[in-house]
Amino acid sequence: MTKHLHTALRLAAEGLPVLPLRKGKVPFANCPACLYTSCGGRPHMKTSGPCTCPAPCHGWAAATADTSVIISPAWASAWQGAASVGYHPGGARLTVVDLDTRDAVAWAQRNLPATRTVPTTRGQHWIYQGVMRSCNGVRPGVDIKSSMAYARYLGPGTGRIAALPDAVRALTARTPTIRPTPQTVTVPGGGGECPHRTPAYLERGITIAEQQITAARSAIHHTVYRTFLAVLSAHGRCGCLTDAHITRLFTAAQTKGETARHCTDAWANARARLGL
After folding, report:
1. Which candidate, 90, 75, 71, places its Cα nearest to that of 9?
2. pLDDT per position in the chain (276 positions), as tens?
3. Is 33 helix (H, G, I), strand (E, B) or coil?
4. Secondary structure, 3-state, 139-172
5. How far are the Cα atoms of 19, 30, 52, 227, 263 from residue 205, in angstroms, in the given order?
6. Which residues contact 248 (CB under 8 A, 6 or more apart)?
7. How far does Cα 12 stand from its chain's mean position?
8. Are 97 and 103 in contact, with CB atoms under 8 Å apart?
């Protein structure tokens, strides 16, 4: 039994839904039978029925506290190749405030009630009792991991778990869902044009972004978010993105199995991270 499997079984016995994570803190890719949701729908999508594949695919939705599944032959190779153990906070009625910098930790110490804390590589996880919507980039260096998300298990931490406070819930209220709205592409040579790019450059950028999303074989959520972030970094402030461009990105993401809501959330989170 590997050390990660041993840890997973201990956590599952405490009621924490767990899943193996590969190097880079990402879940294992969907199995061939479930690729592109050909299995009929991921468990949380409630489309044409639950997926019955025993392998640990579908990311956070694969997390389970069922020890018979965790030690099953279908999961054995994943535990052999696992680099760490992940868990679904929302599945255990928990919320993790992921503080990724020293400044973020200092902010939490000033503004949030004390609770159980777990040291991370660059900061801390603050764990509260209660479930809420997950959201990245709610403020600099701060992510919320609860429902429909996973966190890496880094130890038991110290302190007593406090109830989820309104101050944490309010963090996601500051990054509301933002749906793309039409904008105008300005042709170089006219007033108000994009100061640093041409329409041809924008077209190449959108095409490359579509290709990056389409080529992703794992960590789809992360790939979509990082791609949206890259596009907005280049063109989010110059007004050259149109509704047609954004629709192309959303379509590419949904072809990979993302829901429309996940696309909208990823776009909103990228805008929030850039302060747009």
Report:
1. 71
2. 799 999 999 999 999 999 999 888 888 877 776 665 556 554 444 333 456 677 787 788 889 999 999 999 989 999 999 999 999 999 999 999 999 999 999 999 999 999 999 999 999 999 999 999 888 888 889 999 998 889 999 999 999 999 999 999 999 874 443 344 433 333 333 334 455 556 677 788 888 888 888 887 767 778 888 898 888 888 777 767 777 888 888 888 877 777 777 788 788 788 877 777
3. helix
4. ECCEEEEEEECCEECCCCCECCCEECCHHHHHHH
5. 35, 28, 38, 10, 18
6. 206, 210
7. 22
8. no
What is the pTM (predicted TM-score) of this model? 0.63
Collapsing DSSP to helix, strand or coil, 223 comes out as helix
**Is residue 99 within 8 Å of 141, Cβ to Cβ?**
yes
3-state secondary structure of 116: strand
Place of tokens 């899943």: 19
Residue 165's identity, in one-letter code, is P
Q: Which SS3 state, helix, strand or coil, does residue 178 take?
A: coil
The one-character DSSP state at 221 is H
How many residues are listed for the chain in this entry? 276
